[in-house]
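Researcher: Re-running this chain for the archive, since the previous output was lost when a drive failed. Same request as before.
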Amino acid sequence: MAVLEAHNLRKTYDGQAVVAGVSFRVAPGECFGLLGPNGAGKTTTLRLCLGLTDPDGGTVELMQRRVPGEARAARLRVGVAPQMDNLDPDFTVTENLLVYGRYFGLAERVIRDRVPQLLEFAGLALRAESRIQTLSGGMKRRLTLARALINDPDIVFMDEPTTGLDPQARHLIWERLKRLLAEGKTIVLTTHFMEEAERLCARLAIMDHGRFITEGSPRELIARHIEPHVVEVHGDRVMSWAQGEAATLASRLERSGDTVFCYTTEPGPLLASLSRWEELRYLHRPANLEDVFLKLTGRELRD
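Model: Regenerated structure tokens:
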């Protein structure tokens, strides 16, 4: 039985379809990811699923309750970590958790019993009485995650959970999210980090212009859309090489700035060719989710 099911969701702003007929379902204990460029409709899709925005069409069932009609009751079993931290700067770390817990109607004793465990989970056990202004960006993000768990939710929505964090903080949050999944929690997340999606998501959808353009596990999407080998090449004469030898050796070529991306099922001939061009530098690697994302949504900058 799905904990979240959306069918033909639609939302339009100023005559432009932001969400244009999206359908998906999320099983208990699954991590489902939404990937897409800026403006693809990811955050609006989450808001529709949570009942924070009314759809123009389509249906949502969250925890077997219709949304938005029964959204308030459904959200009692849901945790939300928004894209932007909205912690209360007037309260300490502990007070932020206590106040938030009251929104769910939890007894003071229950909340206080949960706080130490949540602070340990977030790596903030030594900052329980700290003011929010004294926390680093990574600490605030981890506290926002801990706050989303105050009601012991069955499903947690996370909108770009690690944006703006340094690698150490990002890896810590990934480890904590894996722990939640191991405990049987369900996670729905949006992210711009392809590595994050590959590490955490059992399934994901790539979204653009309000629609899902592909859906599946990370491995399925890589196998479906991209040749298995990628050779990234750059150097002073890279275009001469690309337009000559590489054009006949690679299955597909893409150029981004001064780098040529060569996609192939058999890298041997490409590597042999490059060995004769000493002025060129290259990296040979397996295809990854970022290659899929860029192929399907384009390499141009989105604002």
